[in-house]
What we know:
There is one protein chain. The longest helix has about 35 residues, at about 65-100. The protein has one domain. It has helices at about 5-30, 50, 65-100, 110, 115-140. It is mostly helical. The two termini are about 20 Å apart. It contains five helices and no strands.
Amino acid sequence: MLPQQRLAWFQIVVFATACATGCLLWLLAGGQTVLAAFGLLGLWGLSPLFVRRKKKEPGEVLIDERDREIVRRATLFGFAASYLAFVLVSMAIWFCNWMLHSNETVSVHTLTLPVWIAFAVAVVARAIAILVRYGREDADATD
């Protein structure tokens, strides 16, 4: 498995763990504690440990042009998805507060939610795009 694939799987597992923890906190302690699950996303700071790999041979290349292109396109996809998520979550907050509850103001605690969700969507969408792209490359190589 390539270092970029290990990184993508790590990011997806951390995100799934944070989502499961958030659901568990919501069931056990109520809605205000769900944001504490975003603290687990701090484990993404350990991501560089999965990208490094010691060279086996002196002339071995760790990342070539194909890998850079895959990562570049996946990053572009991730940030495009995060922008969409930011807009959708912001509009959902407005809809829930104004249309459903007739509130004219939004809680300060709620304003950080679109930023966190957009960040998580960017990282997870990038990871999924990397895995899909490498999967397609591997499938094309075996045919």
